[in-house]
Specification:
heterodimer; A: 173 residues; two-stranded antiparallel sheet; 4 helices; elongated; B: alpha+beta; three-stranded antiparallel β-sheet; globular; binds iron/sulfur cluster
Chain lengths: 173, 385
């Protein structure tokens, strides 16, 4: 007899917790969803999001980076994903071959190429901290997707120029 | 053709200890790596007698990242992002442990505001870790819905932390001597709103899961660990608090400004998987209490002390202990005066917690091993650092 009553009690508590659980789930069913249906919607809180790093343009000329090609960012980066390239000074009597060398190069104050390998970047921000002229920041692009690793190598000098041109066109319209 | 000799298969892939036992019908089963309930690449060698576990041996080394070696190759600041990768569920605590050790070595004083923000973000991060554990543990036990609710709440913290740090998982927010950046203006109000929200959600957690007969059946009396056993293995965090010892680094060796906060350290005396579960759920409330106090008293001022451009601590060594979501984290740094650490030793709580498993699992059913393993709250990169 006691076995039977124990059985009934177990069935009762089991059923009770089942009903309570179903109640919670049922209530959640009626609540609005919390996920974003990408690509129909996009998230809106990207103001501080860390995407890959990008160059900041000068205040008077946004197409030209503030960067003075000192190479401090490349030295500070723990993942070795930055390379700043500058024109190598031409020796007397030699033709200018347009050769590029790693920054800093004698006399060069602007980078010819600024390459970031986003596939290696750990988004630590050391480069932006190291920069003496505040020329680096994180972009807010959360949708960088590709099948190829090479697609994550960004050339930032031309990217900045493109951005400035686009902004100019957008402003004229 | 040569006859097949079963004795040629004697021994085991991993260690000589895993030879077949004296009786013929023991089964050697390899659980993991890449088993859904081993949370990463942990492998457990099991010797089974029917469905009962005779012996269990964790096997590590599938994702060894050599963090300690890497520390010797990089400057102090360059090593910082690694700390987010050691334990990706509670990176703030690791950030703090490393930054704290170097600050102690250099004798740096961290500004008040930075200390309070450190407390707030570390506790927020602890909640995300516990929520994820809660969902994942129930997933291990066969319940799917809870992880959805856990992620729902966790997402709210990640949004706050993203606005603070810029990332959602591997924050590299602490710097030596302070913080990377200041918090947004609405940080305090958002934190308070979140803790209020979480407190209102906890009764739902209880109704849905904690009082559920299936969970009780799978956790009560399973993997009972007494304080003695926990001490012998050096288990810390919710593990030892579930066995009744109120050991908490935040109280035992106060760091930062923790001694200014008033909080309760939950303990349960049963020592089983359910006790560890309850400790973690109660810790959500503890963390909420601390966050409330931290953001209510947030002082103004700078968030970073002046540090030299290349950090070169003086010769010597220092260690710094932090209470992580999984237990006591300790970072020991030894400097030879150069820009790179001479030696860095990381003490990960999961490593000690995992090795209790061998003893807890002996004599239990295979299905109980999953309940026990989940209740340890393992993060493999931390164990296998
Ligand atoms: S964020 Fe860190 S890893 Fe990325 S480019 Fe800058 S320094 Fe290198
Ligand atoms: S640290 Fe700044 S100025 Fe120097 S190379 Fe890098 S971006 Fe240019």
């Amino acid at each position: 007899m006691s076995q039977l009553s124990q059985l009934i009690e177990e069935a009762y508590t089991g059923l009770k917790s089942l009903v309570i659980g179903l109640g919670v789930t049922g209530k959640a069913l009626c609540e609005p969803g919390v996920t974003v249906i990408y690509p129909k919607e996009e998230v809106d809180n990207l103001a501080t999001f860390r995407g890959h790093v990008e160059l900041i343009g000068k205040d008077d000329d946004p197409a030209v980076a503030r960067c003075v090609a000192c190479g401090a960012c490349a030295k500070a980066c723990p993942s070795n994903c930055i390379s700043v390239l500058c024109p190598v000074p031409v020796k007397e009597g030699e033709a200018d071959t347009g050769k590029l060398g790693p920054a800093p190069q004698k006399g060069s104050k602007t980078p010819a190429q600024f390459i970031v390998d986003y596939s290696l970047c750990s988004l630590c921000g050391q480069c932006a901290r190291a920069c003496p002229v505040d020329s680096l920041r994180f972009c807010h692009d959360a949708y960088t997707v590709a099948f190829d690793r090479k697609a994550f190598q960004f050339e930032l000098v031309s990217r900045l120029r493109q951005q400035a041109e686009q902004a100019l066109e957008g402003g004229e319209e | 053709m040569q006859a097949f000799d079963p004795n040629s298969l004697r021994g085991d892939l991993v260690s000589a200890r895993f030879e077949p036992g004296p009786t013929e019908d023991k089964l050697i089963l390899s659980m993991g790596p890449q088993h859904p309930s081993t949370h990463g690449v942990l492998r457990i060698m099991l010797e089974l007698d029917g469905e009962y576990i005779v012996r269990a041996e964790p096997v590590l080394g599938y994702i060894h990242r050599m963090h300690e070696w890497m520390a010797e190759q990089k400057t102090y600041m360059q090593f910082m992002p690694n700390m987010g990768r050691v334990d990706y569920l509670h990176p703030m605590a690791w950030n703090w442990a490393f930054a704290g050790a170097v600050e102690r070595l250099m004798g740096l004083e961290v500004p008040e505001r930075a200390e309070y923000i450190r407390v707030a973000v570390t506790e927020l991060n602890r909640i995300t870790s516990h929520l994820l554990w809660w969902g994942a543990y129930l997933l291990d036990l066969g319940a799917f819905t809870p992880i959805m609710y856990a992620f729902d709440d966790r997402e709210k913290i990640l949004d706050i932390l993203q606005d603070v740090t810029g990332s959602r998982l591997t924050y590299s927010y602490f710097t030596i001597g302070g913080l990377y950046g200041d918090v947004p203006d609405d940080f305090a109000s958002r934190c308070l709103a979140f803790t209020r929200h979480l407190r209102s959600r906890l009764p739902m957690y209880r109704d849905l899961v904690t009082d559920n007969v299936i969970l009780r059946g799978r956790c009560e009396g399973i993997g009972v660990m007494d304080v003695e056993l926990a001490r012998r293995y050096g288990a810390t965090g919710p593990m030892i608090r579930g066995s009744g010892a109120p050991v908490d680094t935040r109280r035992a060796e106060p760091y930062g400004v923790y001694n200014r906060f008033d909080f309760h350290i939950p303990t349960y005396t049963e020592g089983d998987a359910m006790a560890r579960y309850m400790v973690r759920l109660d810790e959500l409330v503890t963390s909420c209490d601390i966050i409330d106090q931290a953001v209510a008293n947030l002082p103004g001022g700078p968030i970073q002390t002046k540090v030299p451009k290349t950090i070169k601590p003086p010769k010597g060594e220092a260690s710094f202990a932090v209470e992580g979501a999984r237990g006591k984290i300790l970072v020991h740094v030894r400097s030879d005066g150069g820009p790179k650490p001479y030696r860095v030793k990381l003490r990960a709580p999961g490593f000690s917690n995992l090795h209790v498993f061998s003893e807890l699992a002996e004599g239990t059913l295979l299905a109980d091993a999953v309940s026990i393993l989940g209740s340890l709250d393992l993060v493999i990169p931390e164990i296998d650092r």
